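Sanity check

After download, print the first record. It should look like this:
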Amino acid sequence: MLSDQLSQGIVSVRPFVPSRDFDLGKRFYADLGFEVAPLGDGVAHVQIGNFAFLLQNHFVEQWASNFMMHLMVTNLDDWWAHISSLNLDERYNVRTIAPKMEPWGLKVAYVDDPSGVLWHFAEGTN
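Expected structure tokens:
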């Protein structure tokens, strides 16, 4: 099948995440535990382990307020302890919501980044 042949050549898929204040966004993600590497004017490679996205110095409020990232982890309690220890809500004026079991069957914690991008930190295996 052609799609099987094409998929073998894929190296990565990285969404472009909006940032209202690019420098603040880079600091936020670095504090959260990501490695942040500038790629030139207005774009940074943001990575944790084998997973990455591109933070861009571009912001459209309607887009950012509807943009979501979903990070599956094996131990949400460890992640929440880390997130809570950072006082992101006070330091970055963002919303954090403690883990809770959602009706669709996943335990999820929520964190808004400084631009309004909503992160779902969910516990699961896939």
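If your output differs, re-run the checksum step. Summary of this record's structure: The first strand starts at residue 16 and ends at 18.
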